[in-house]
Every structure is written in C-alpha cells, then in structure tokens.
Amino acid sequence: MPTEHRPSEHRPTEHRPSPAVIETAANWAARFDSEEASDADRAEFVAWQSAHPSHRAAWNAIRAFDSSLDAAGDLEHAALRRAAQARLTRRRTAAGGFAVALLVAGWSMLHFAGSADETARYQTARGQVKTVALEDGSDLVMDTDAAVTVALTRSERIVDLARGQVFVHVAKAPDRPFVIRTADGTATALGTAYSVRRDSAGTRVMVTESHVRICPADLPNACRTLGPGEQARITSSGVVGLGRIDAARASLWTSGWLEVDDRPVVEVLSEIARYRKHSVRFDPGQLLGRNVTGSYPLSEPDRALSGVADAADLSIARQPDGTLVIGPR
Fold first, then answer.
1. Which CATH architecture has domain 117-245?
2. In degrees, to the nearest 5, what angle opens at C-alpha 286 toward C-alphas 284 and 289?
3. pTM summary value
4. Domain FecR N-terminal spans what residues (predicted)?
5. How many CB atoms lie within 10 A of CB 184?
C-alpha cells in the first residue's frame, strides 16, 4: 500500500520538524561547534539525519538560521543572534544549554509562525488506498475515493472528512485532542486507533483500540463513548449502536483486503464495487438469501468479484464500456 508524504497544498506539513527534532538538530549543531565531536558522533549524526526527511529539514534550517543571524536587523533577530552567540561561546556550560533552547524556540517562531492555522488537503482516487504521515506522528489511512482536510494546531488536531473512510493511529498528545469531524458530528480519540466512514446513511465509527467519544453535531448532549470492538452510526437524529465487530477484520481494508463471514452477497458486491473505476450493476432482489464467506483482494476488484461470483453461483458479463453486470447463473 503506497504511503503519501505530500499534501495537495503547496506547503507540506508532514515533513515539518517537530520541536523535539528541532532541539535534537540544535544539539547536534552545538556538538559540532564545540569541535569535540568524535568519528562515532559523526557516524551517529549521519544515521540520525538519514532516518527521516524532517531530520534533514531541521538540520538544514538550523544551519541556515545560524548563517542568517548576522544579517538580522530587527530587535527579535538581534536577541536571537545574541542567544546563538552564547551557544557558540559557552558550549558545554548550563548557560550554553539554555542558549540552545533559546535558539530552538526562536528558530521555531521564525520558521513556523502562522503554521498553527495552516491546513492540508488530501484525497484518494477510486480504487486507491494510501497512508498520510501527519506532522504530530499520527498515521492517517485513507480508503478509496476519500477526501479530508487536516488542521493541526497547538491546541487541537482536526480531520474534516468530506467523504469516504479513514483509519487513524493517533499519536498521544493529551493536550491536543484528535477529532475526526463530519457533517453528522465528531469522533474524538481517547486512545489510539479507530476508523470513521462517511456515506449517505450518516457517519459510522468503529473502534479498534482504546475508546472514542462520538457526538452528533446538533445534539451535543447525546454523546456516547465507544470501546474496543464497538461501532455506532452518527446521524442527524442521534447515535445508533451497530453492535460489536471483529476489530482486526474490520480494519483489513487498510492492507487491501476484505474478509467476510456469512455476509449477504449484495453487501459484499457493493463494498468491492467501491474500489472499481467502472460501474458494477446487479439487481439486489435477485440475490436475496445468498451469503458468502472468504477473503477478497480490494486492490484487484475484478479478481475479488470473480471470487464472490464463484462462491455465490453468479455470472458476470462485461460491457464494452467496462461495466460489469452480475446476476444469478
């Protein structure tokens, strides 16, 4: 499954260094400035810099910031220049460590000013599943034909889901709530992993790990907390429980598979059809009473549909425009 590391906006957020990465880069700069770095230190630095794009970005920016201090003219830059010079002259003293902290804070302020209100938009094509690595350390897996807007601020993390389905592994940050929001309501992470799906029937929330608090948009007093293996649908009229699920099976789509156990064939065909570029047509009334069990590759929808057809004794006819017509044999 491909991993996406570039939003559609012109300023990507996923490679922006975190404060901890910036601090590490500043500490490396201080170590090299002290002229006491060993060969082992240099090897460790190369490994660190190569470990993630944000490490290289932080290092390059720290060095560029150091170089730009001499040209700074306003009061803020002058203060930061003095802090950086203190870092260079005091080196291994406690005051030098404080100067590094000042440099990190100042560099972050100058380079990321205004970033708290930035948003990034992501979408997937029909049949595509991709993972977006968010700046806060969370991983957002987007299902076929999905669209989201992500806003990461100092106080909260908001994912607006316009359509489709997402699964998220949430990085822990108790002081920055992680919320997936749709027109129907919100699903706020109280733990680590859950999925949210938006369709014509409302918003479906399924919890894999820990807990999620869901709230209808128009009924703030009708909130409900879901635990592992629980699912519910948020609609304009409130929250409707949907019973328990096999959490591992429910999230298999993130790996490109659909696994079903005695599930109505109409539901299975409809699910697989979401991953196909061309239409799939069938008459639900002709397929009532037919259930299937099996594992089907969502990354190969035609192969998956053939497997379902074999299991349910169905025929498949391909039209010139690529449409598949499915019915009883």
1. Sandwich (2.60)
2. 85
3. 0.64
4. 24-64
5. 24
